[in-house]
Design brief:
By secondary structure, the chain is α+β, with helices and mostly antiparallel strands. The chain has two domains: about 70 residues, no CATH class; about 50 residues, no CATH class. The protein is about 45% helix and about 15% strand. The protein is built from five helices and five strands; from the N terminus they run E-H-E-E-E-H-H-H-H-E. Strand 2 and strand 3 form a beta hairpin. Helix 2 packs across helix 5. The longest helix has 23 residues. The two termini are about 30 Å apart.
């Protein structure tokens, strides 16, 4: 079982999630746990192994949405922490700029720190679970309560 550094996995997920419009990919070697980032923006700067299409040798990092760390996570948090605001938050996510408006609302309600803690914990759990399913051991995990 190959090891993968938590931060490398987290960065790979952030990279592909932010680069959805730019055809960004992150490939992880099943043998070494090394991450290879590939997009139009970094083309030619990083050598991508030719066998990244071989699922026995490489796995593609998931997006935040693929791990249910996007809108679904927000709505789970709101249902638990701010149930009276659920409909408003759901409406926010029907338009562009939803996260900025969501964070403004959290700031007004004094719940921004609670959101960040919830998001951090859910991200940690989702990344570790995904890695285990894919046959990786995650190393250098952050403390669940680290800020």
């Amino acid at each position: 079982m190959a090891s993968i550094d938590y931060r490398d996995l987290q960065d790979a997920v952030e990279f592909v999630s932010a680069g959805l419009m730019f055809d960004a990919h992150a490939y992880i070697s099943r043998e070494t746990g090394k991450v290879y980032l590939d997009s139009e923006d970094v083309c030619g700067e990083v050598e991508i192994p030719g066998e990244v299409d071989d699922p026995d040798a490489y796995v593609e990092a998931p997006t935040k949405q693929g791990l249910n760390l996007g809108k679904r996570l927000v709505l789970r948090f709101v249902a638990r922490a701010l149930p009276d605001e659920y409909d408003e938050v759901e409406n926010l996510f029907r338009r562009k700029g939803a996260y900025a408006r969501f964070k403004d609302l959290l700031l007004q309600k004094g719940a921004l720190d609670a959101w960040y803690e919830y998001e951090r914990s859910a991200t940690r759990a989702a990344l570790v679970a995904w890695a285990e399913v894919e046959g990786f051991q995650v190393v250098n995990l952050p403390d669940e309560r680290a800020k």
